[in-house]
Amino acid sequence: MLISVIIPVYNIENYVEECIKSVLAQDYKELEIILVDDGSTDSSGRICDDYAKRDNRIKVYHIENCGLSGARNYGTKNATGEFVYYLDGDDCFADELSVSSSAAKITDEVDAVIAKYANFDMGTGTITPEPFSLKDEYVADKNGEDGFATLLNNIDRPIWCAWRTLFRRSLMIDNNIWFRLGQLNEDLDMMPHLYRAARKLAVNDRVNTLYRMNREGSIMTTISASRFIGVFQIITRWLDFINTDGNCSDTFRKAMLRQMEITYFSYIRKFKSIAKKEKSVVISAAKPLSFLLNSQYVRPKYRMLYKMFGFKGMVYIMLLSGR
Question: What CATH number labels 3-213?
Answer without folding.
Answer: 3.90.550.10
